[in-house]
Amino acid sequence: MITARLDAVRPGATICPSDVARALSSDWRPLMADVRRVAADMATVRATQKGCDVDPITARGPIRLGRA
């Protein structure tokens, strides 16, 4: 699902993990940790916060997901 969402945006753009969670369920908030965990395991996905690379599992606050 993360890859599909990234495919839907222009090259170089990022998405919010909540975009993925919202696509999976109307009760999306409980899914946020799972989305971050899956993103951390994907070699083709990069997580950033304020433009700096972060670990999506340990980062606190909003992050963005993009292509690595």
From TrEMBL:
Record-linked SUPFAM superfamilies: Winged helix' DNA-binding domain (SSF46785)
Which stretches are annotated as coiled coil? none
Source organism, top-level taxon: Bacteria
Q: Which Pfam families does this UniProt record tie to the protein?
A: DUF3253
Q: Name it.
A: DUF3253 domain-containing protein
